[in-house]
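Our platform keeps sequence and structure together, in a single record for each protein. Nothing more is needed to write down the fold, since each code stands for a local backbone conformation. An entry from our holdings is shown next, in its original layout:
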Amino acid sequence: MDLWQLHIFCKVVELKSFSRAGKTIHLSQPTVSSHIKSLEDYFGCRLIDRLSKKAQPTKAGELLYRHAKTLLYLRDETETALAEFKGKIKGTLVIGGSTIPGGYLLPQIVGTFTQKFPDVFISLVIGDTHKIIHDTLEGIIEFGVVGARSGRKEISQEKLLDDEMMVIVPKHHPFSHKKSISIKALLGEAFIIRESGSGTLASIDDRLSASGYGIDDLKVVAEMGSTESVCQAIKNGVGISILSTLAVTEDIKAGTLKALSLDGLKLTRSFFLTWHKGRSLSPLSKAFMEFLKQEVQKK
């Protein structure tokens, strides 16, 4: 038995799959199976039941998982403590961000962090809020930053910062000379929405609901899978939308898009640090989270 085998075992338990565990840690499925078999031989009992396509820990496996996570956390904590003692922080970290924080907030902070700590490698997974929460639950990422609250009891969240959303129109739109429009005017315009699972879409629906309206009241003409595609559709006259100002800062500066407020409706929402309540965060993860909070406070 060694710590690497325990790491592989924990990934199989968390992802409920030998193949997915292999993809996450860059090993073939037969290699993962071989390591699990070695552990079972070492302890003299079955640790993983292969039930149809899902890998489930046995009672012995559940016991080993709890102790293995403690050992792996102590390993990471020891490595980080010694690295810090030598003036270094090092390691690999996989984090996630929903479309807006993942595309417009985290890359800059990841860059600053890795410049300060060159022995750290950070992998940033970007998807909609639903995907980032799913990947957090599955153990694919250590933590994420998303634009909506999760209702899952296994998820812990902490508010990171507020985000201002505004009505975005192309430069030649009849509304482009205005500073604000009414909800009634918004409902009369061709509107582009993000896909189901998007934190932006959930926030728009939530804000409209506070005024007695909903997504169904909008004249939706298109649904887009990314903020970039929504911006391009707006520029090409497909319709207007409500987006984070973080996502359109450069276009607004260039004058290709205009941002308007909505009369009587506050479009501010929040971004949340999101992690699995039942899993201990690695020391490197904690260090990055603290750095992230400090950088956000400067903005």
